[in-house]
Structure formats: C-alpha cells, structure tokens
Amino acid sequence: MEKTDSMIARGLLDIGAVLLSPDRPFTWASGWKSPIYCDNRRILSSPALRDRVARALAETAATLCPDAEIVAGVATGAIAHGVLAADRMDKPFVYVRPKPKDHGTGSQIEGALPEGARVVVIEDLVSTGMSSLAAVDALRAAGAQVLGMAAIFTYGFEVARARFESAGVPLVTLTSYSVLIGEAVRSGLVSADMVRTLEAWREDPAGWDPSV
User: Fold this and answer.
1) Segments of the chain with pLDDT less than 70
2) Whole-angstrom Cα distance, residue 32 to residue 46?
3) String of DSSP letters for 125-148
4) What is residue 1's predicted lDDT score, i.e. its pLDDT?
5) Which parts of the chain fold into alpha helices (H)?
6) Are 122 and 151 in contact (CB under 8 A)?
7) Kind and range of the H or E element at 121?
8) Which residues share a beta bridge with 150?
9) pLDDT tens per residue, range 88-146
10) d(Cα 39, Cα 68) in Å, to the nearest integer?
11) Which residue ranges make up each domain of the chain?
C-alpha cells in the first residue's frame, strides 16, 4: 500500500498546490527568496484530497495526542483544516489569531478554551516554525496544555526542528519537502537542473541566491 506521505505529496502536485519557479523566485513573508511555493489552501477546493487530508490529520492528531480534549487551528491557513479534523475526531475546536484583534473582545483565541485544557494544534504548513510556535505560546498563555502539533507539510528546516524541540512541542507532518521533491521527480515535473536548484535552496534558504 502506498505510504500516506507520498500520497499526500502527489495529491498536492496534482491539484497545483505546489508551484516551482527557480528563475522567478517567490518572496516569503520572512523576506527569503524561494524557488518553491506550497499553497495548501487549494486543498479545500479538491473534495477528494480535502477528505484524505482531513482524515489523515485527524488520525495523526489522535495518535500523537490521544489525551487531547480540544483541537486548535492556526489562523488563517489551518482554520478550515482544523475544523475538518476536529469534526472527524468529535472534539471541540478553537483557532488562534496571529495577534489579538483590535476590536470587540480583543480575543486572540476564538472559541471556548477552558483553563488547563489539553490541546492538539493543527497547522497547514511549517517553514521556520515561528508563526506555528507563536500560536502555541498564545494557547499556553491562556492556560492550555499543548500536547503536540499535526501539520500537513514541512520544509524540514533545521531551524524549525530546533525551535520545536526547544519549545517542547512534538511535531508530526503528513508529508515533507523531501518526499514532495521525490514525487515531482518521479512524475517528471522537474528536471535534473531544477532538482539541484531545489536542493541548494533547501540547504541554505536564508542565503540562497537565485542568480548563482
């Protein structure tokens, strides 16, 4: 039987959620230049893959954090995925804003989060880990016990691994950058030159120079 990580990676490629553009790189919010962009929001427009991802996230979250009482999604990309996973787990759902809203209640966490609640976090994508762990910080500040995080995709950067380890947050992802590139090669979507570019970027994303 095909492994889940390969199946999800191929699904992302099939629906055009992964864009490769080494000649005209994308600019991330961090300022990094990247030859690849992964848009997991496109999963929501593909019913078959959406269901597969929701089931896989629910199973992963339940296995990683069997004692979780509440599912929390990281806004905005993981709100829908978190809701779908929480529905399959039959758990309450909350979501975490990047910062408290500047109107109304001023809440950063939306939904009912009892003091001391055991929480599993759902994320759509992990790059450097900063925004994902900022959500964890907000949950902990609100009195929650964060047991772990389940995400759809990770670039697998060392800086993210170190941050999650330092924060004491177990992370499990459905698929990863290396699996995705392997599927792209098998599908004939990338050339040998492009693979070398993608590998060079992966080794040093902050210092990668698209002109070299």
Assistant:
1) 1-2, 212
2) 29
3) EESSSHHHHHHHHHHHHTT-EEEE
4) 43
5) 4-14, 47-64, 79-89, 130-141, 158-167, 177-186, 192-203
6) yes
7) strand 118-126
8) 122, 172
9) 999 999 999 999 887 877 799 999 999 999 999 999 999 999 999 999 999 999 999 99
10) 28
11) 4-203
Q: What is the mean pLDDT of the chain?
A: 93
Architecture of the domain delimited by 4-203:
3-Layer(aba) Sandwich (3.40)
Give the number of other CB atoms < 10 A from CB of residue 31. Answer: 7
Identify the CA nearest to 82 among candidates 131, 141, 152, 148.
152
Closest CA to 26 of 157, 212, 205: 205
Locus of tokens 């959500």 = 135
- Specify the residue for token string 């962009």: 37
- In terms of phi and psi (left: phi > 0; alpha: psi -120 to 50; beta: otherwise), the region of 12 is alpha
Query: Which residues have a Cβ under 8 Å from the Cβ of 72 and sit 6 or more positions away?
Result: 82, 93, 94, 95, 96, 109, 113, 119, 120, 121, 122, 135, 139, 144
Q: Calculate the alpha carbon distances from 25 to 35, 100, 196, 201 in Å.
A: 5, 32, 15, 11
Q: What is the DSSP letter of 41?
A: G
Residue type, 48: A
pLDDT value, residue 191:
84
What pLDDT score was predicted for residue 24?
87
What is the per-residue pLDDT for 207? 87
pLDDT of amino acid 206: 87
User: CA quadruple 59, 65, 69, 70: dihedral positive or negative?
Assistant: negative
